[in-house]
Amino acid sequence: MSNEGPNDLGDRIAKAKAARDARDAAKRRAEQADGTSISAGGYALRYGAEFGANVFVGGFIGFWIDKFAGSEPWGLLIGGTLGFAAAIRAIMRAYRELNARALEMTQGQNAPKQEDGTEDE
To answer: Which of 6, 12, 19, 120 fits a 20 to 30 Å CA distance from 47?
Structure first.
């Protein structure tokens, strides 16, 4: 006969469930870490593509303004400058998105939010 009482089986089941939950949580963390590295590469590609596209489009529009208006260097310079400013703004927006996603992953869905959507410090 066994000396185990009726509560011993319940304790063993609870311990097994806790161990399974811990394994599942570790597996989810590992999967999120793998997804983060892929996402970081995607964001790096996005930064470069947005920067290049914004500067190119601004310069291209300025170039065509120069062709039609005959104001040779000024349209290109102003268009390129506006494209550069738009590129910086796009990179800042993408960087805020990346930080918000990283904060959400570290603090979970219940991270405190301010009225403008940013995190409390």
So the answer is: 120
